[in-house]
Specification:
By secondary structure, the chain is α/β, with parallel strands linked by helices. The chain folds into three domains: 9-153 and 245-389, Glycosidases (TIM Barrel); 398-599, 3-Layer(aba) Sandwich (Rossmann fold); 611-665, Immunoglobulin-like (Sandwich). The longest helix is centred in the middle third of the chain and has 29 residues, at 212-240. It is globular, with a radius of gyration of 26 Å. The two termini are 34 Å apart.
């Protein structure tokens, strides 16, 4: 029988092949001291497991599985297919990936394989099968971990093998009819008409901009190829070791957009994610919160696993900032507050050698007499204290629609301005709602919207007719729908919706834009009409006409002076708002304040820009999480039991500067649940 995952599992990547047997014994003793109960094993061990094509060496892994089991530590066992060994790429250089300008990416790093290579897949499935047959009944096995960060370094390959696979994918998408492809790609432009699929190539380097729909389809294809690799390994694992859940670690964070994780999430038994802060960005806790909510969206609202984050600095940014005291614990609890049922790190022991030797670990180079180690032990204690939240979910009445295909389309070349970035408005709206204590789901446009009273649609550049109809239906049923600029512009083929912008949403919003009026770099305009006085905006304005909506705010100056900047239209039992410019933070805050007040959404107590207050809900109980990023104590009005300290709270909870708290809320009438 498969071993269940621990409640709020704690641990990280373990790479014993980097260390001697004496170190292994020390590792297990220190893992017990730190409360580690789950490790990811064997992620990059292909060359150790299969040192030659016809030779296997499982003895070292047998020892590790047995020893970890004896120590009470469960294993998330990787299929080790993330990085082919040198012997494979030496014998078969044709499996190596190729960039869009024709350069081969050689071995020496990791993930040196073409995702479309059938030869790579054959070797990978052979390894996967061997591991599953050997360890499917092992008592330490709790979870299978396919590959690692699929597509992190090889998401798009432009070699001839990939080109052939792309053509096969296109034949399926366009019913094996090249005329349908020509129509979808708009090949009447620039004499690009094809008369045979064999003429089609990936969007390699060309004299000028490549066909935008060709680019978009290649991004879709590339995501699908990597997903196919996951599914192929998953199916082997399901067949050989039925009942053991299978995952792979996503990279849901701002700097990764190669994979359509909202589509991938349906294929995983349990969703897991890697998340790293960007040291150069202030307020990283806000991006973390958005990405954690988006990860919950990829999991369909179910709990998920934080597979990797860092105890302190990473190694791969230009300047790798160490985390401040308490920051690691705050980061970890923020993920748990938003649905994570495991807190794992890369990696257990900081490496002595290799490209990631300066990446922090649970056990730092300086050993256990360090603040970092003491915080690791404290985090383990905190997770044990709050583990009763495992399995609970979120119940929110506000949603942000998010679509990777819209992200890809929005940031293609040859657009009105390079300054429109897809996640920009989504993150700012999420920030403003979170500061008010309003919980938010981040979901795909195809999600059921019936439970949401506020639906935010930021920069949904590419949109289907079905999504447009669903948003109209949501508004008519009583939801307030808020659409921002550069939304509804094109259909799934990246064809402009004619008749005026924002094409798909004109009727819903009661507006019509005849021309975009993007602003120059550094140019700002003033907008008035929101409570509290004028605010500033930048990046985007429009020549906007009212066609049934009313103006809520107006441009004071700039190319759209005197024209509406924000509009509202009653729709059925709800309303539809349009935000036609990029408001500054103060403007976004005022708009969101008005929306939350109008819709009468619940505000969790004590929230502010530096104090996260969120709620998880289970059967007959709920838990309020407070993560204080401020340098001052935070006060929260709540009744219940604070689990970290074990103290009962009767109305006034004070959370120390930089501290965390988790309160099992009292039931109605003040009784502690």
């Amino acid at each position: 029988m498969p071993v269940p995952l621990p409640a709020l599992a704690f641990g990280g990547d373990y790479n014993p092949e980097q260390w001697s047997r004496e170190i292994h014994e020390e590792d297990r003793a220190l893992m017990r001291e730190a409360g580690v109960d789950l490790v990811t094993l064997g992620v990059f061990s292909w060359a150790w497991l299969q040192p030659e094509p016809d030779r296997w060496e499982f003895g070292w892994l047998d020892d590790q599985m047995d020893s970890l089991h004896s120590a009470g530590i469960r294993v998330d066992l990787a299929t080790a297919t993330a990085s082919p060994p040198p012997w494979l790429t030496h014998r078969h250089p044709e499996v190596l990936p190729v960039t869009h300008d024709g350069r081969t990416l050689w071995p020496g790093g990791r993930q040196a394989f073409c995702p479309s290579s059938p030869l790579y897949r054959d070797y990978a499935l052979t390894l996967c099968t061997a591991l599953a047959e050997r360890y499917s009944e092992h008592p330490a096995l709790a979870l299978w971990h396919v590959s690692n960060e699929l597509g992190c370094h090889n998401a798009r390959c432009y070699c001839d093998v990939s080109a052939a696979a792309f053509r096969t994918w296109l034949r399926r998408r366009y019913d094996d009819d090249v005329a349908v492809l020509n129509d979808a790609w708009g090949t009447a432009f620039w004499s690009q008409r094809y008369d045979d699929f064999e003429q089609v190539l990936p969007p390699r380097v060309a004299p000028t901009h490549a066909n935008p729909t060709q680019q978009l389809d290649f991004l879709r294809f590339s995501s699908d190829q990597l997903l196919d690799n996951f599914v192929a390994e998953r199916d082997v694992l399901h067949r050989v070791s039925p009942g053991v859940p299978v995952t792979t670690n996503f990279m849901v964070m701002r700097q990764t957009a190669e994979m359509d994780y909202l589509r991938w999430g349906r294929e995983l038994d349990v969703v897991s994610n890697d998340h790293y802060l960007i040291a150069a960005e202030a307020g990283g806790h806000r991006e973390l919160a958005f990405s954690a909510d988006l990860t919950r969206g990829t999991a369909g609202g179910r709990p998920w696993l934080l597979m990797e984050h860092s105890t302190s600095a990473v190694n791969w940014q230009p300047r790798n900032r160490a985390k401040t005291p308490g920051e690691m614990i705050r980061n970890s609890l923020s993920h748990v507050a938003r649905g994570a049922d495991a807190v794992l790190f890369f990696q257990w022991r900081a490496s002595r050698a290799g490209a990631e030797k300066f990446h922090s670990g649970l056990l730092p180079h300086a050993g256990t007499d360090t603040r970092q180690w003491r915080e690791v032990v404290e985090l383990s204690r905190v997770l044990d204290a709050v583990e009763e939240v495992a399995g609970s979910t979120a119940r929110n009445e506000a949603a942000i629609l998010f679509d990777y295909e819209a992200w890809w389309g929005c940031e293609l070349d040859s657009h009105p301005t390079v300054d429109v970035r897809y996640r920009d408005r989504a993150e700012d709206l999420h920030r403003a709602l979170s500061a008010l204590g309003v919980g938010v789901d981040v979901v795909h446009p195809s999600a059921d919207l019936s439970s949401y009273r506020l639906v935010l649609v930021p920069t949904l550049y590419l949109v289907s007719d079905a999504t447009a109809a669903a948003l109209t239906a949501a508004a008519e049923a009583g939801a307030t729908v808020v659409v921002t600029y550069f939304s509804g512009i094109v259909d799934e083929h990246d064809h402009v919706r004619l008749g005026g912008y924002p094409g798909a949403f004109r009727d819903l919003l009661g507006v019509r834009t005849t021309e975009f009026l993007p602003l120059l770099a550094g140019q700002q305009v003033r907008v008035e009409g929101l409570e509290g006085g004028p605010v500033t905006a930048d990046v985007w304005t429009e020549d906007l006409e009212l066609a049934g909506a009313e103006a809520v705010a107006t441009h004071v100056d700039g190319p759209a002076a005197g024209l509406p900047a924000i509009t509202r239209r009653p729709v059925g039992a709800g309303a539809a708002w349009y935000v036609a410019t990029r408001l500054d933070a103060a403007g976004t805050d005022r708009l969101v304040e008005r929306l939350v007040t109008e819709v009468r959404l619940e505000r969790l107590p004590g929230a502010s820009p530096l104090v996260e207050v969120t709620r998880r809900v289970g059967e007959g109980a709920s838990w309020l999480f407070v993560v204080n990023h401020d340098s001052e104590p935070a006060e929260v009005a709540v009744h219940g039991v604070e689990l970290v300290s074990g103290q009962e709270v009767a109305g006034d909870l004070v959370v120390a500067a930089g501290g965390v708290a988790v309160v099992r809320e009292a039931a109605a009438g003040g009784q502690v649940a």
